[in-house]
Amino acid sequence: MTRTLLIDTDGGSDDVVALIMALRSSDVRVSAITVVAGNIPVEQATRNVLCAAELCGAQTPVCAGAERPLLRELVTAQWFHGKDGLGDHGYAPASRQADSRHAVDAIIETVLLNPGIEVVTLGPLTNLALAMSREPRIINAIGRCVVMGGAPCCEGNVTPAAEFNIWVDPEAAKIVFRAGLPLEMVGWHLCRGSAALNQEDISKILALGTPVAEFVIHSNSLAADAYHAQTGDYGISLPDPVAMAIALQPELCTASSMHYVDVETMSDLTRGMTVVDRLVVAEDERNRGLWEWAWKGQVRTRVCWTLDVTGWKAALYALLHGQDSAHG
Ligand code: RIB
Ligand code: CA
After folding, report:
1. Which of the following CATH numbers is that of domain 3-321: 2.40.50.40, 3.90.245.10, 3.90.1150.10, 3.40.640.10?
2. Coil, strand or helix: which one is 265?
3. Which residue from 148, 166, 185 has its CB within 8 A of the most atoms of ligand 1, so it is best to mutate?
4. The pTM is what?
5. Ligand 1 pocket: which of 7, 16, 75, 122 to mutate (most atoms <8 Å of CB)?
6. What is the pLDDT of residues 190-241, one digit of tens each?
7. Distance CA 319, CA 26 (A)
8. Residue 323: predicted pLDDT
9. Rounded Cα gap, residues 196 and 191, in angstroms
């Protein structure tokens, strides 16, 4: 049975690769793509998403959304992805326009029309938090919510404590993580090291010789440089495509477990930290007050700890190669 997806994205160079994976997969139907400010301003992110959709020949509705976080000023990642978010190569704009609906309206409408829908978020959680606050019925209508975000019990990529998508809008993330969604957290730790595309992976993709394959690598040229500057590692690190691969093929997450997870919003030092109760101490007497929201509602998140790196790269290659299904 073809599954239905709604994708919320901040339109950066890794986001568009994740979108291409979903749009080229015969295992899923992408019902709508909603856009949020994050990597770049929402207008540019929307243009990038329309480009990716056009490259796939997809007429999927694209709806622009929140221009800034719930409470804070927008801080972009243009230093990482480039001013246009796609490596500043001057790609031609798509021929079609975005849908006239606001992303929040589109999320509410799409979820209520497709009970059991799978939501994949690739950017800050502003749109989803706004949609849930405006229409709480969508919480029970969402069948699965895969979030690219967080740094579970490990270092962040924006601060020592926090990953970008959560750090940009921690208040929105707190709403989403506390809502009781069937939430799966794919953290930044899963896209580093051997999971990043190495030179051999890059050459193999470029050897496909297609416009899509070339775009996937070329649009991430600045991101590759920034990744090395940030971590000392080489290659193209693709957080959103890793999250999309797990969304398409859950078995690619090779170890996961359910935990109470909360988001820090009060501290500058640990803003956006995804605090994971890994050792299950939240219900201990000394902690019960802080985590009452969690144990009263038994609100847990599935935290993905490890990735089948070979399987993730095979899934990406299969979708770029034109084998319709991520299952090869
Ligand atoms: O921290 C990585 C995440 O932040 C990715 O989704 C990237 O596109 C940016 O949005
Ligand atoms: Ca993103």
Report:
1. 3.90.245.10
2. coil
3. 148
4. 0.97
5. 122
6. 999 999 999 999 999 999 999 999 999 999 999 999 999 999 999 999 999 9
7. 9
8. 57
9. 6
